[in-house]
Write a structure and sequence with these properties.
single chain; mainly alpha; about 0% strand; elongated
Amino acid sequence: MYVFAIIAGLAIIFTVLIDAFETVALPRRVQRHFRISIFFYRNTWAPYARLASLIKSPTQRETMLGYFGPLSLLALLGIWAFSLIFGFALLQYGGGEHLSFGNQVITFRLLIYQSGETFFTLGYGDITPASTFARILSVVESGMGFGFLAVVIGYLPTIYTAFSRREIEISLLDARAGSPPSATELLSRTIDVRNKNNETLDRLFHDWERWAAEVLESHLSYPVLSFYRSQHSNQSWLGALTVILDATALVIAGIDGVSSEQARSTFKMARHAVVDLAQVVSAHYDPTIPERLTSETLAQIRAQVASKGLTLTEGPEAEEKLREIRMRYEPYVLAIARTLYIPLPPWIRRDTIRDNWQAGPWDRMIQAQGLGRIHAERRGAQVEDHF
């Protein structure tokens, strides 16, 4: 019985330490079948997301989904801490001797309490180790408690720094591609048709190539970032990646007078990101999901960009080339979107909703006040003309 307790305690502690190391310190994806963190996210995200999907309001639904990332991180840290406390309690139970001031019988429940106060370095002293083995365990556990607190203090700011870097470019995309963004809006607003100049588009693609690399690095190192939602309900890291892939796909397929060199580099990096991140979130390929771009939508894209002075390459070969490019990334973004309950942006916007930068809670009142002043000035002018 005591030997079994020692073996079980060592197994629990070793498993938790390995999982915490791979989650916090190891900057690469681990493909081992069983991990505490992976098991935790696979069994908590799906029911949580299904519960949130029952909310009809998109804004409130996104708000609830946005709680999962931070809450899951705190819950995972709590699971690690409790597992370590439980593991050390098993070791104390299996090989230690303890004394109590109240001359109580030392039960396993009291050993869990003693392990917890040791782990968090409370040091009440009501239960004390009486053997050398128990004293060594107490010292090791208290040191591990200090290390755990250091991990929490260092890990959380790192997570939020990576999240902040990710969100900056997403916010900048608002004025470039609309809210929600779309590839057609991005190309229409960015390319200088009058001067036949796409330097602005190339600079934007260059910035997003680096952003895609940063997202890949940060989300591989800290997979929990995949569950962190953006500040606005019509924005997301997956939506931004999809828009960039859509825009580069259109440029690579052919737009008259627009170079595709930088678009190809950006496409490669963005496609690399979605392929690897689909594995991080355990997305699954579904061949039954319909394609995002229909022939009717493509015709509407041609018409809209033509009104801006851009001409997409036409013909069966161009359409087949565009489809081949799309099939290299669309199955991945569709699978991630279904797994994370993130709505994908359309290829072309059909609504008249204003961009996020154009909307404000006081706009109607300011507009009404301005119109009131204009009407008052006109009435004053009419009275002066009358006299």
